């Protein structure tokens, strides 16, 4: 029976989640405060932690950081309100497995838990097939061209972009298009490996080299031999590890902790970061290592700067969620498509994917309508622009029937015409080329006063 630790100070919420998960066959331990967490982790062999953000004596983010330091492979699911989605995004950077937003949907929670328990070592895997969507925005098209150009070479690639923009997916694509495609793709989350063990995790160790080294261990670098090593959040590497890594890359060989023997290395490095590594004052990153991994740089822009990609990725995530939940949702209502276009997407593709997954799960018809989005998302949509003032902001590629599109445009045109002619309906009707009666009927239909 899998053991879950639930950290939630709202007792009614805690009780609800606990009883639901117990019914699903989990053994659930719970606490309300940060200071109680480690007592449980030491006492029980916990398989998964679920933590709320606001706790009486601290935050879920602090809990997450402490857990990642002491138990790097323990999965943590982070709960937050939608209005705090930036915090949830930060939690992903610190190493949360996933975030879900309140109000919690039990099915979504269960799905996320099952996924977390299934993926043993989330960030380290052999190369695998993935459905890679090529965005249609100019910036993504350019990125993809660069990916195709650099993939067949052995150049080190540095991917720079906000969390959730698709850096790991791009890294996997580069690997898949390279001559190393049949070799391993090893993804290491440098933010999630503990500082004590990072040397041994990356370079391996020999038996007896330190207390606890009960056998020989192959490190990630050696594990990636013949393939690609993806170093995510590379800015988090300790200075001492940076030097060792630089040496290994220059010498093309690795020495295990406690050994003098050199193991030859044939790996390609792809690194990712969301910080400015060149700015040493800020990042504390070795410039020589920076130049070694930055043989080819790809900047991945945030989703809000390539809005043309939203509809394509939406379609993809809807299909993916349909397959996951056995649903047949075919897209967004025009209103939701419009909200999506305006939203700032600080969690980028990951946030879009999570939102869609939740909506598809809840959908009872074949459309994602506003009522399926978290209330906070609509209340505080983090609109990047003000409300649209012309039809150009609607894209014909937004999902929606012709009638829905037409109605939205009609409503906007009527409002604008009324404003233009200071609510003189005869003039507005004449301007729009319709008669007054039609204008009145349409105003009534759209609730225009
Ligand atoms: N090109 C793509 N095609 C299909 N899905 C994608 C693509 N890029 C990203 N995704 C989806 O978005 C999610 C986030 O992408 P990814 O993990 O690559 O982002 P990231 O920039 O590496 O994030 P982080 O910085 O937090 O590690 C993925 O799990 C995947 O579902």
From TrEMBL:
What sequence ranges are listed for the domain Sigma-54 factor interaction? 133-361
Report the residue ranges that make up the Response regulatory domain in this protein: 3-117
Q: Which GO terms describe its molecular function?
A: ATP binding; sequence-specific DNA binding
Q: Which domain of life is it from?
A: Bacteria
Which InterPro entries does its entry note? AAA+_ATPase, AAA_lid_NorR, CheY-like_superfamily, Homeodomain-like_sf, HTH_Fis, P-loop_NTPase, Sig_transdc_resp-reg_receiver, Sigma_54_int
- Please cite one Gene Ontology biological process associated with this protein: phosphorelay signal transduction system
Q: Which Pfam families match?
A: AAA_lid_14, HTH_8, Response_reg, Sigma54_activat
| Listed SMART domains | AAA (SM00382), REC (SM00448)
Alphabetically sorted, this entry's keywords are: ATP-binding, Nucleotide-binding, Phosphoprotein, Transcription, Transcription regulation
Modification 4-aspartylphosphate occurs at: 52
- What protein is this chain from? Sigma-54-dependent Fis family transcriptional regulator
Organism this protein belongs to: Mongoliitalea lutea
Q: What is the lineage of its organism?
A: Bacteria, Pseudomonadati, Bacteroidota, Cytophagia, Cytophagales
């Amino acid at each position: 029976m899998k053991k879950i630790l639930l950290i939630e100070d709202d007792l009614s919420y805690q009780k609800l989640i606990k009883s639901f998960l117990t019914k699903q066959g989990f053994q659930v331990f719970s606490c309300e405060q940060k200071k109680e967490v480690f007592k449980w982790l030491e006492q029980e062999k916990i398989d998964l932690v679920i933590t709320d953000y606001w706790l009486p004596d601290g935050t879920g983010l602090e809990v997450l950081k402490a857990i990642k330091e002491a138990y790097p492979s323990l999965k943590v699911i982070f709960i937050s309100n939608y209005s705090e989605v930036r915090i949830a995004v930060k939690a992903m950077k610190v190493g949360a497995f996933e975030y879900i937003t309140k109000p919690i949907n039990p099915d979504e929670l269960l799905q996320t838990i099952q996924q977390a328990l299934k993926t043993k070592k989330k960030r380290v895997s052999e190369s695998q097939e993935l459905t890679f969507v090529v965005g249609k925005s100019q910036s993504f098209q350019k990125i993809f061209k660069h990916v195709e150009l650099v993939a067949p070479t052995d150049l080190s690639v540095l991917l720079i972009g906000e969390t959730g923009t698709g850096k790991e997916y791009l890294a996997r694509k580069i690997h898949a298009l390279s001559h190393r495609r049949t070799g391993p793709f090893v993804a290491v989350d440098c933010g999630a490996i503990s500082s004590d063990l990072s040397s041994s995790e990356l370079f391996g160790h020999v038996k007896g080299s330190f207390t606890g080294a009960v056998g020989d261990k192959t490190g990630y670098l050696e594990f990636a031999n013949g393939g690609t090593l993806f170093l995510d959040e590379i800015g988090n590497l300790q200075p001492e590890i940076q030097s060792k890594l630089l040496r290994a890359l220059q010498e093309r060989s690795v020495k295990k902790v406690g050994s003098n023997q050199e193991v030859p290395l044939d790996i390609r490095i792809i690194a990712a970061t969301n910080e400015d590594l060149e700015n040493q004052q800020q990042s504390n990153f070795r410039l020589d290592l920076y130049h070694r991994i930055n043989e080819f740089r790809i900047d991945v822009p945030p989703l809000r700067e390539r809005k043309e990609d939203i509809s394509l990725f939406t379609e993809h995530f809807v299909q993916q969620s349909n397959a996951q939940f056995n649903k047949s949702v075919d897209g967004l209502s025009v209103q939701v498509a419009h909200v999506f276009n305006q939203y700032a997407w600080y969690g980028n593709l990951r946030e879009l994917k999570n939102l869609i997954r939740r909506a598809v799960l809840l959908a009872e018809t074949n459309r994602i309508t506003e009522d399926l989005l978290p209330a906070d998302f609509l209340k505080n949509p983090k609109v990047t622009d003000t409300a649209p003032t012309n039809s150009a902001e609607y894209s014909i590629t937004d999902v929606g029937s012709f009638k829905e599109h037409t109605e939205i445009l009609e409503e906007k045109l009527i409002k604008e015409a009324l404003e233009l002619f200071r609510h003189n309906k005869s003039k507005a009707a004449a301007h729009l080329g319709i008669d007054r009666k039609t204008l009145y009927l349409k105003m009534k239909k759209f609730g225009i006063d």
